[in-house]
Each structure stands twice: as C-alpha cells, then as structure tokens.
Amino acid sequence: MGLQVTEAVEWMKRINEKIHINKEYLTSLDQPIGDGDHGINMARGFQEVSNKITMENYENVADLLKDVAMTLMSKVGGASGPLFGTAFLKMSLVAKGSDTINHDNITRMLEEAVNGVKQRGKAVEGEKTLIDVWSPMVEYFKRVDRFKAGEIAGEAKKAMENTKDIMATKGRAAYFKEKSIGHIDPGAATSFYMFEALSEVIKA
Ligand code: ADP
Ligand code: MG
Ligand code: MG
Questions:
Q1: Do 140 and 200 form a contact (C-beta atoms < 8 A)?
Q2: 156 C-alpha to center of ligand 2: Å?
Q3: Residue 9 above 90 pLDDT?
Q4: Which reaction does it catalyse (predicted)?
Q5: What is the pLDDT at residue 109?
Q6: How many Å lie between the centroid of ligand 1 and the Cα of residue 172?
C-alpha cells in the first residue's frame, strides 16, 4: 500500500519519460510568458535524476527523494531547479523514518513541500506558479480518506488548467503582466506530469 522504494523509483522514471515526451510542449509554454527553456531545463534535470537513481540501491524512500532533490538543485538551471529541488527535499525529510509511505505520510510530505516552495520562492497560491498545482493536491489528499489513483491525475490536470486564468505575479511570467493571462504556467504543467506519474505508481 502507498509508496515503497520500488514505486518511488518507478515514479521518478515515469516523470522522466513524461517530461522527455513533452519536452517541446513544456518549452512552448515557456515561450510566450518566459524564456523558452522550461522543457530543456526539466528534461536535463530528470535525465540526471534517472541516471543517478539507476546507479543506486535505496533502502528507503527518504534517501531516494534526497538524491532527487540534490540532483535537481545542482543540475537544473533556472528558477524551477531549486524550487522542485526544495519540494523533493522537504518530502524526503518528512519521509525519513517511515519504510512505507501511506496516505497520511503522503499528505504531510506534500504539505511540507508546498511550505518549502513558498518559503524559497516567496510566492503563495494564485500567482501562476507550480504552487497552484501542488497546493490543490495537498487539499485533495486532506479531503479524501482514501485516494483514487485516477482522481490524483484528474485533480492535477484541473489545477494546471486553472493557471491559464491567473495573471502571473512571480517569476519571469510576472514581467508579462496581463499578457500572461490565457497561458498555462510551464511549471504547473511539469507538476501535472509529476502527479500523473504518481497516480500511475501509487497503491491505494
Ligand atoms: P526560468 O524562469 O528561470 O527560466 P523555468 O523556465 O525552468 O525557469 O521555470 C519556470 C517555472 O518556475 C514557472 O513556470 C513557475 O511555475 C516556476 N516559478 C518561477 N518563479 C517561482 C516562484 N517564485 N515560486 C514558485 N514557482 C516559481
Ligand atoms: Mg524559463
Ligand atoms: Mg531560464
């Protein structure tokens, strides 16, 4: 049940696959409201993550997530590296000491991830960033006693699509002011792939 090392490794591999398949798309989202490198940044980062975790033999989810965090922080240029890095580092800290990650663990891991990203990037909900996917996911896990895999992806997709209507007030997209409205936030799209991948590996 939940997430063990095998599932967590598979989670990262699937994120890597999805980001590679959608690399051009993610970059195209970053063109009108950024500098057009988001797909490149994330593909490079998750390729490094995949390489790193394939070489190691993890005893627990916390150690795996820590390596993911460190790799993203050191290999991804751009705002997204340190921010996603922080998210995975916070998840690792909460996961420490638990061999199996159950519903409660996941909820607390995601909650701390959001807090960490908020602190690091000085952003809150409603500013058109990856927070606008991660925060609704925390709410989802808090709301349900038992998640349904398909629902995780559905909730994340809705949240990602909602970033279209928001005017950006943080990150590069904030320079575009009103012109940022009508575009999906690139970091929110990457976050959707992360949760879609989670929904494919997590056991209810
Ligand atoms: P850069 O903007 O440095 O080129 P990326 O293009 O890789 O970096 O990532 C941009 C994404 O980072 C945005 O779409 C947004 O989701 C996220 N982001 C940027 N600034 C912040 C922030 N202060 N807080 C949270 N997320 C942010
Ligand atoms: Mg960019
Ligand atoms: Mg950049």
A1: no
A2: 21
A3: yes
A4: dihydroxyacetone + phosphoenolpyruvate = dihydroxyacetone phosphate + pyruvate
A5: 97
A6: 7
